[in-house]
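Structure (tokenized):
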């Protein structure tokens, strides 16, 4: 898993949507954006239960399609998120959550200095298709 999450080889999971649809047919995608910086933190899934909990508690709560359970982002690491705003798209089949990190961290992966980073920290090289880690 470490190589997948932190390596430099491009290994996209083109079967993910099919697996999600088979295992969790009642979810929709949600893009999660840092309300202060505009950075996209991650794209995940939510269902009706997770949406209700997110709106009620004003914290980022998603649906884990791998564990098939509610997932409060950062509950284990302490890198939790306050919900600032929620938007729905025109077809009402995806959401955008604008959130604020409660401790400043975003992802469970760490940069060279050991600090949490944005989940989108690898750039794809168009020529080779390899990944380049971008650590500010």
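Design, position by position:
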């Amino acid at each position: 898993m470490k190589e997948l999450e932190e390596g430099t080889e491009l290994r996209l999971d083109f079967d993910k949507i099919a697996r999600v649809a088979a295992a969790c047919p009642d979810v929709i995608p949600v893009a999660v954006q840092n309300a202060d910086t505009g950075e996209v933190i991650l794209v995940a899934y939510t269902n009706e239960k997770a949406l209700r909990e997110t709106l009620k508690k004003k914290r980022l709560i998603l649906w884990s399609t791998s564990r098939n359970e509610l997932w409060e982002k950062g509950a284990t690491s302490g890198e939790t998120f306050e919900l600032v705003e929620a938007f729905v798209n025109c077809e009402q089949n995806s959401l955008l959550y604008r959130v604020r990190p409660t401790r400043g961290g975003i992802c469970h992966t760490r940069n060279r200095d050991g600090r949490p980073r944005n989940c989108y920290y690898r750039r794809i090289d168009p020529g080779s298709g390899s990944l380049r880690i971008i650590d500010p």
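Reviewer-requested clarification: Residues 2-133 form a domain with the Ubiquitin-like (UB roll) fold (CATH 3.10.20.810). The longest strand covers residues 81-88.
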